[in-house]
Structure formats: C-alpha cells, structure tokens
C-alpha cells in the first residue's frame, strides 16, 4: 500500500474516468511544510495560523508572523497556500487574549472565537493582515476567514486588509501580485446567504468539523457523540450538495477542508455529491489519491443521487457495499 501511495506522489490526482481532483493538505506549522513534497499534495488548502499563537507564551509580534508566512510561502514554491486568519478564543483560549468581562463560556465552540475575536480586537487582525500582505509581496496571497456567519463579517474583515494594503501602497512596499479572498463555510447560517456572499469571494472552504457539530448540535469534542452522527449522513451530504449548487457558475472554488475529506468512504461520498477539491491531513493524501484512481465519478454521482433522493437506512452500509463491489 505504502509503495502504491508513494508511486502516486508525483502523479496528478485523477479519478478512474479522468476527472482531475485537487488534493491539498492542511498545515499549521513550519515543520509541516516538508510534507508538501513528501505527499505530492497540490498545495496547502488550510494553513491554520492560530497554531503560532497557541504555541507562543505571548502574542506573536507582527515581524514573527511575517517571517512564518514568508517561510511557508517559500517552502510551498509554486503551490498555493490558503492562510486562514486566526481561529482562537472559545476552546482555544489564550491566556494573553482574554475577553474583557471574561468568565468561562458555557459553549466555547459557539462563543467568542475566530472572526468574532478578530473583528473586535482589530489590532490583532490588522497586524495579521499586514504580516500576510508583506510576506506575500510579489506572489499570490490566498486569505480565508474562519467562522463567517453572515456576509457583513466577511466585508468587515476584508476592509481591514484593504486598509493595510492601502497603507503598504503608500509606503511603496512590494505588494502581492494577486489577492484572493475566501470564507470558511462552517456555520450553517452562511449557507443561506451564498447569493450575497458569492460575488465577493474567490473561494469557499467547507469546514466539516465545525459544520457537523452545528448541523447536529453535537459537540465535536464529546466522545460520547462521536459515533452518533455520521459524516456520511444524508443530511450533511444534502447540505454540501446544495452549497455546491448554490454557487455553481459563480466562479467560486469550493473545497472541503474538514477531517472527513481524508477518510476513504467519506471522500467517496464527497466525490459523489460533486466535490472536486479537498484539503486533508497529510497522511491521507496518498490513500485518497489512490482511492480516486478506482472511482468512476459518473457511477458514484448516479448512486449518490439515488441515495439522497431516497435515503437508505444506512448510507455508510450502502457506500461500503458499493465500494467493495468495485474492489475499492
Ligand atoms: C473545520 O471546522 O472543519 C476546520 C477545518 O477547521 P478547524 O478544525 O480548525 O476548526
Ligand atoms: Mg472550524
């Protein structure tokens, strides 16, 4: 198996019927970067910038942020990197960044976190915007905002970048060649507003880790619930299919960057609903590329349409049977 995955390292991921699927990897530290060439991933579809904050005893100075982003872009070479602005707060609380009227939150996952923190503590987002814009001088910068719940939050975050860009222009600093903005889709409410959001963004990344917990109202960190809600449940797959349909033809790249994309049966289901971009844990890149070579997209699309129209008792059982009948 390992040899088969390694052999695919330098081969573009394609399905059995020749459909090109973009298989990127998730990262968060400098040390993750060598995995890009080791796995042959198409790029970094999710760089979790909060890792630098989480491993630091104090707020990382802007220069340190710039250095990290520059090193990451350098290491990635021609391959794209999607930087997600900090997703801290909530359960990733930092001792040096506290809510004013603190006290522990009862529901940190749906509390003061991610963009909610960044928009309130504007200095934080300003520094990060400047660091990213400077680090990507002369290159393409892909920026993504986490936990966007309403389109105005995207606008407000982008405005912070616009202001920093203007400042850098005034300083005659080297600017990015191109800046692409995107949003995480992990709060279900945003899915109802894609007609408003789509014209503003270049890409959307579905974060199925958070999306699932919000769709099912089931804490992603509670082991008691881990087995209860299945990533291949018809509700999640219908949801993702609808998101794809709602942005179709609008020039928005849609990826899935949650953990589910790195699991074989889940990836198969995602291909079945029309997902063609994945960002997954590095160890899954080889296995998923290998899986794709065995999948005929027309066949799985047809099967999935049938299952989603008339949900079976167990989607997982259907997928297992479908896969094993094809030697997958
Ligand atoms: C997600 O929510 O699916 C995601 C990719 O982000 P994180 O796991 O960092 O919350
Ligand atoms: Mg998330």
Automatic annotation (TrEMBL):
Organism: Novosphingobium aquae
Family of this protein: Belongs to the PEP-utilizing enzyme family.
Protein name: phosphoenolpyruvate--protein phosphotransferase
Location of this chain's protein in the cell: Cytoplasm
Domain of life: Bacteria
Range within the parent protein: 427 to 754 of 757
